[in-house]
Write a structure and sequence with these properties.
The protein folds into 2 domains: 126 residues, Rossmann fold; 87 residues, Winged helix-like DNA-binding domain superfamily/Winged helix DNA-binding domain (Arc Repressor Mutant, subunit A), CATH 1.10.10.10. It is 49% helix and 19% strand. A 5-stranded parallel beta sheet has the order 2-1-3-4-5, sandwiched between helices. It is found in: Cytoplasm.
C-alpha cells in the first residue's frame, strides 16, 4: 500500500482528492494537512511514501514545503496538484524533484494515470538493485520516447498468443503448470512451454520444480510482482 499525505488548504478540494486517491487500488490516504506547518509535523511523525501537494496556501506555499522536504532529506515523493500554471512554478517544482505536475482543474483520469505510473515505477525500483540501460530508459523516459524501441518477441512467438497467455496467467495467478496454461487457452504444451520460458527469462514469472512420487518434477509457475511493467513493451503494437 502506497501511503499518501494530501496537502491542500481547501477542505472540499482535499476531500475530493482523498476520494479520487482511495478509489485507485494500492493507495491509501495517511492524512490531510491544510498548511506547510501541519504537513511538516505530519511527515516528521509518520511514514509517508507520496505527497499530493498544492502550491497556493496561506503562509508558506507548497514549493517552500517541497524545499524543506529536500533539505531534511526525507525519502518521500511529490505530485504537485495546483492552479499555478506559470512556467516559473512548474520549473521550480520539477527542479525540486516533483514526479508529476497536475494543473487544476484536472480530470480523475489524469490523476489516475499519474498515480498508476508512479505505482509501476515503484514496483520496478523495488524489484532489482542493478539496472541495464534499456530498463533505466523505461523508468526515466516518457513512454513516447521509448515506444519506437519497443522490445521484439523471440522468433516463433506472436503478440496475439502472448496476450492470451498473459490474460490467462493473471487469472491462474500462482502455482500453475504448463498443462494448466495450455488447457486454459487452447494451445499445445510445447507452445505453452515456449511462452513460459520467455516470461521466466524476462522476470515475469518464477518457476519451481515440485517432485512427486513418480520421480520426474512438475514445474509450477508463480507471477512475480510488477510483471505487467516488464511485459508491456512486448505487447505494444
Amino acid at each position: 500500500m502506497i501511503r499518501v499525505l494530501i496537502v491542500e488548504d481547501d477542505p472540499m478540494v482535499a476531500e475530493i482528492n482523498r476520494r479520487y486517491l482511495t478509489s485507485v487500488p494500492g493507495f491509501g490516504c495517511s492524512g490531510i494537512a491544510s498548511n506547510v506547518t501541519e504537513a511538516l509535523e505530519f511527515l516528521r511523525n509518520n511514514s509517508v511514501d507520496l505527497v499530493m501537494l498544492d502550491i497556493f496556501m496561506p503562509g508558506k506555499n507548497g514549493l517552500q514545503l517541497l524545499t524543506e522536504i529536500r533539505k531534511e532529506g526525507k525519502s518521500v515523493d511529490v505530485i504537485v496538484i495546483s492552479a499555478a500554471n506559470d512556467i516559473q512554478n512548474i520549473k521550480q517544482a520539477l527542479r525540486l524533484g516533483a514526479v508529476d505536475y497536475l494543473i487544476k482543474p484536472f480530470t480523475f483520469e489524469r490523476l489516475k494515470t499519474a498515480l498508476q505510473t508512479y505505482q509501476k515505477e515503484q514496483e520496478m525500483i523495488q524489484e532489482q538493485n542493478e539496472w541495464n540501460q534499456e530498463e533505466l530508459d523505461k523508468l526515466l523516459l516518457h513512454p513516447d520516447q521509448t515506444r519506437s524501441t519497443s522490445a521484439k518477441l523471440p522468433k516463433g512467438l506472436t503478440r496475439e498468443t502472448l496476450q492470451r497467455v498473459v490474460k490467462s496467467i493473471d487469472t491462474l495467478k500462482s502455482g500453475f503448470t504448463t498443462e494448466e496454461l495450455a488447457r486454459d487457452i487452447g494451445i499445445s504444451r510445447v507452445s505453452a512451454r515456449k511462452y513460459l520460458k520467455f516470461l521466466t527469462e524476462i522476470g515475469c514469472l518464477s518457476v519451481e520444480p515440485v517432485y512427486g512420487t513418480g520421480g520426474r518434477p512438475v514445474y509450477r509457475y508463480d507471477v512475480k510482482q510488477g510483471h505487467t511493467v516488464r511485459i508491456a513493451p512486448y505487447l505494444e503494437t
